[in-house]
Structures are given as structure tokens and as C-alpha cells.
Amino acid sequence: MADVEDGDEPGAPHSHPGSSGSKAGGPDKMFSLKKWNAVAMWSWDVECDTCAICRVQVMVVWGECNHSFHNCCMSLWVKQNNRCPLCQQDWVVQRIGK
């Protein structure tokens, strides 16, 4: 969530004094992001061996990006999109197994 400048009320439109638009003719910025805090992360639980696509305990395939998926799910996925579903790197199989 962005911090509001001193004196600004949350929900009020933000404008710069004395300007009716940017120099390029576009609208003023409504806000600027000053701080970003990640609140969630996903990581593979190797102990669980659960596919991130179908959530079933499975034979997994690891990509060079080190993400793991159910081999059958990933086989279907790469027919439509040859990228890792999580990080979008080109999908290259590193190994298959449990």
C-alpha cells in the first residue's frame, strides 16, 4: 500500500498545485508508490510432494528453474505454454522422479 503525503486525506484525489496536466498533455499522477512490502511467498514443500497445478501427490518433474510439478500436468501445460507456470522462465526439464 502506498503512503500518503502529509496533509493528504485517504481517498481524496491527488493533484499537484498549479498544474492541470503533465507537460506531455497526459493526466497528473494519482499517487506514487513509495514503499512495497511483500506479504506472501510460495515455495515447494519437498516433504509433501504435492503438485502446484492439481494439488495431488505425484511423480514430479523439476525444471531448470527448480520448480516442481506433476509430470502429467506439466506435459499438458507445455503443449499450451512452454514456460514455467510459476516464474515464466522457458521450461527445460532438469529431472523426473519422486
From TrEMBL:
Keywords: Cytoplasm, Metal-binding, Nucleus, Ubl conjugation pathway, Zinc, Zinc-finger. The keyword Zinc-finger applies. Residues 10-27 have a biased composition (Low complexity). Its main location: cytoplasm. Residues 1-27 are annotated as: Disordered. Pathway: Protein modification; protein neddylation; Protein modification; protein ubiquitination. GO terms for biological process: proteasome-mediated ubiquitin-dependent protein catabolic process. It comes from the Eukaryota. SUPFAM superfamilies: RING/U-box (SSF57850). It is an enzyme of class 2 (transferase). Residues 51-88 form the RING-type domain. It catalyses: S-[NEDD8-protein]-yl-[E2 NEDD8-conjugating enzyme]-L-cysteine + [cullin]-L-lysine = [E2 NEDD8-conjugating enzyme]-L-cysteine + N(6)-[NEDD8-protein]-yl-[cullin]-L-lysine. InterPro entries: RING-box_E3_Ubiquitin_Ligase, Znf_RING, Znf_RING/FYVE/PHD, Znf_RING_H2. Transmembrane segments: none annotated. GO terms for molecular function: NEDD8 ligase activity; ubiquitin-protein transferase activity; zinc ion binding. GO terms for cellular component: cullin-RING ubiquitin ligase complex; cytoplasm; nucleus. It is found in: Cytoplasm; Nucleus. Its EC number is 2.3.2.32. Pfam families: zf-rbx1 (PF12678). Belongs to the RING-box family. This is cullin-RING-type E3 NEDD8 transferase. It comes from Cairina moschata (Muscovy duck).
